[in-house]
Amino acid sequence: MRLTQGMFSFLPDLTDDEIAAQVDYFIRNGWAVSIEHTDDPHPRNTYWEMWGQPMFDLGSTRPFMTALAECREAMQSAYIRVTAFDATKGWESPRASFIAHRPTAEDGFALARTSVQGRTQRYGIRADVTDRPTAGRYR
Amino acid sequence: MNAPTPVDEAGPDRIAGPDVVDLGAERRATGIDDYLAGLDARLVGLTPVKQRIDEIAALLLVDRVRTRVGLATGPPTLHMSFTGNPGTGKTTVASAMGEILHRLGYLRSARVVSVTRDDLVGEYIGHTAPKTKDVLQRAAGGVLFIDEAYYLYRPENERDYGQEAIEILLQVMEEQRDDLVVILAGYADRMERFFGSNPGFRSRVAHHIDFPDFDDGELVRIGEMLLADQQYRLSDDARATLFDYVGRRRSQPHFANARSVRNALDRARLRQANRHVTAGTVAVDDLSVIEADDLAVSRVFNDRPDDARESR
Ligand SMILES: Nc1ncnc2c1ncn2[C@@H]1O[C@H](COP(=O)(O)OP(=O)(O)OP(=O)(O)O)[C@@H](O)[C@H]1O
Ligand SMILES: [Mg+2]
Question: Half-sphere exposure (CA, 13 Å, Cβ side) for A100?
Answer without folding.
Answer: 31
